[in-house]
């Protein structure tokens, strides 16, 4: 394999992607997170999970639209970072906010659709994180692996629904995510339609 | 300047007040933005003086009164109340104000008066949040007359011994401690007595999630979260939420015979 043209890319994404955690931890320790620090951490980790996961979904469309290959190098890292934020978001809710009150957690997850979809999104991301290694790609075979990993669209869509249903009144922000997600999906659909057309128009041999 | 210690009144809680800093920087006041920190940052555009309050509707003595005159009619009382937000957080706030009942009696409700309707100032220049159609402006709230006459129902003009900061609803706001915080309408310009139940902003915005009564009730969950417990600002662990926010002894009688699941 040729050496990477941007050797700093992955470390930079990793450090940049994790720096909000360091900032949050620092502010938490300093008492600089306002009157309701747990709520703040809950919101920020949720937002970060969504932002990073949407960014991971932008990698392939960027390649398709502009022919860039560098986004593909960080796609997996972004996916795993987004998963890590989703886990932190869930743990903030379950441990810090609800104090691991199992009854309350179970009632929330089963009775409240906004929490149900958020939890489902997290659960769907687990098999994707588990099969993210090169060894798992080989073991599953690329077509199967690829089909499995299309679940990410379902998971992130559920994440956006979770955000929409959480908002009390102003839907602008969650709808921005919904639009970006829709656009990214549209690029892929357009690409697969184009491919099929090209294949169909090939002369029969 | 902060006041000296005073004997505990019959309606006071002896719980530790929330730090002033928290009570004045963590607010829901959508007229100044949707984030909790927005009101403290943006509410400087509100001019709480001169201020006029209209009192009308089913009363024998309707009037339009200057805020300073209104305040001069009643001695200021201190009340340390729990405040439970519908979002499942709570505070303890030392208010200064006067009972709503005093004002209502002064204007003499007619025999037709059954409800009290409140209206917030409508002025997008002073309240920039009103430029967006987030809620149906101006903010309106209401109480049944017997609720409004209850001695716990307070019209507040100050907190922590200071004049009410803009972000907390200057110059005049309602405090009904046994109900969720959104019933405590801020920056009031009009108080009307009515024969029929008045519309209330949050129940207009979402009838399924916010009712007219909005009494604190750990047994009736918000559709999106449990109301069984709450986080007291400044505390780490949640605490159980009390029926009527701990004021059941004083106010439960107002609702005898009513289905509080139906009338949430």
From TrEMBL, chain A:
GO cellular component terms attached to this protein's record: plasma membrane
Residue ranges constituting the Ferric oxidoreductase domain according to the UniProt record: 45-159
GO terms of molecular function: electron transfer activity; FMN binding; heme binding; metal ion binding; oxidoreductase activity, acting on diphenols and related substances as donors
Superkingdom to which the source organism belongs: Bacteria
Any Pfam family matching the protein: Ferric_reduct
Magnesium is among the record's keywords: no
PANTHER family: PROTEIN-METHIONINE-SULFOXIDE REDUCTASE HEME-BINDING SUBUNIT MSRQ (PTHR36964:SF1)
Family: Belongs to the MsrQ family.
Protein name: Protein-methionine-sulfoxide reductase heme-binding subunit MsrQ
Organism of this sequence: Melittangium boletus DSM 14713
């Amino acid at each position: 394999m040729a050496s990477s043209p941007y050797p700093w890319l992955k470390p930079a994404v990793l450090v940049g992607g994790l720096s909000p955690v360091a900032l949050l931890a620092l502010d938490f320790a300093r008492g600089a997170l306002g009157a309701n620090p747990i709520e703040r951490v809950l919101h920020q980790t949720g937002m970060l999970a969504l932002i990073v996961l949407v960014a991971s979904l932008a990698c392939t469309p960027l390649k398709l639209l502009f022919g860039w290959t560098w986004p593909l190098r960080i796609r997996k890292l972004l996916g795993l970072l987004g998963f890590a934020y989703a886990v932190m978001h869930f743990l903030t809710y379950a441990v810090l906010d609800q104090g691991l009150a199992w009854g309350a957690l179970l009632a929330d997850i089963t009775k409240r659709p906004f929490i149900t979809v958020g939890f489902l999104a997290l659960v769907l991301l687990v098999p994707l994180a588990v099969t993210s290694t090169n060894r798992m790609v080989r073991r599953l075979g690329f077509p199967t692996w690829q089909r499995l990993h299309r679940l990410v669209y379902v998971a992130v869509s559920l994440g956006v629904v979770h955000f929409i249903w959480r908002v009390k009144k102003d839907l602008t922000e969650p709808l921005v995510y919904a639009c970006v997600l829709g656009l990214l999906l549209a690029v892929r659909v357009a690409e697969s339609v184009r491919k099929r057309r090209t294949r169909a128009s090939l002369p029969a041999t | 300047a902060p006041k000296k210690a005073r004997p505990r009144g019959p309606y006071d809680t002896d719980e530790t007040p929330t730090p002033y800093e928290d009570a004045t920087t963590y607010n829901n006041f959508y007229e100044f933005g949707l984030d909790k920190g927005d009101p403290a940052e943006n509410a400087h555009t509100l001019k709480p003086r001169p201020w006029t309050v209209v009192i009308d509707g089913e009363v024998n003595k309707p009037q339009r009164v200057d805020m300073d005159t209104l305040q001069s009619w009643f001695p200021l009382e201190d009340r340390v109340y729990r405040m439970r937000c519908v979002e499942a957080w709570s505070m303890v706030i030392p208010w200064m104000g006067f009972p709503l009942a005093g004002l209502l009696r002064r204007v003499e409700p007619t025999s037709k008066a059954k409800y009290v309707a409140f209206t917030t100032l409508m002025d997008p220049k002073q309240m920039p949040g009103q430029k967006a159609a987030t809620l149906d402006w101006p903010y309106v709230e209401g109480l049944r007359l017997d609720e409004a006459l209850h001695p716990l129902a307070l019209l507040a003009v100050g907190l922590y011994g200071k004049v009410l900061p803009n972000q907390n609803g200057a110059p005049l706001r309602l405090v009904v401690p046994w109900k969720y915080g959104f019933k405590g309408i801020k920056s009031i310009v009009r108080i009307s007595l009515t024969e029929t139940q008045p519309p209330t902003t949050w129940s207009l915005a979402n009838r399924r999630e916010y009712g007219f009564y909005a009494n604190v009730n750990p047994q009736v969950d918000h559709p999106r979260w449990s109301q069984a417990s709450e986080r007291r600002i400044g505390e780490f662990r949640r605490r159980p939420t009390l029926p009527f926010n701990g004021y059941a002894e004083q106010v439960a009688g107002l609702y005898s015979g009513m289905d509080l699941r139906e009338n949430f």
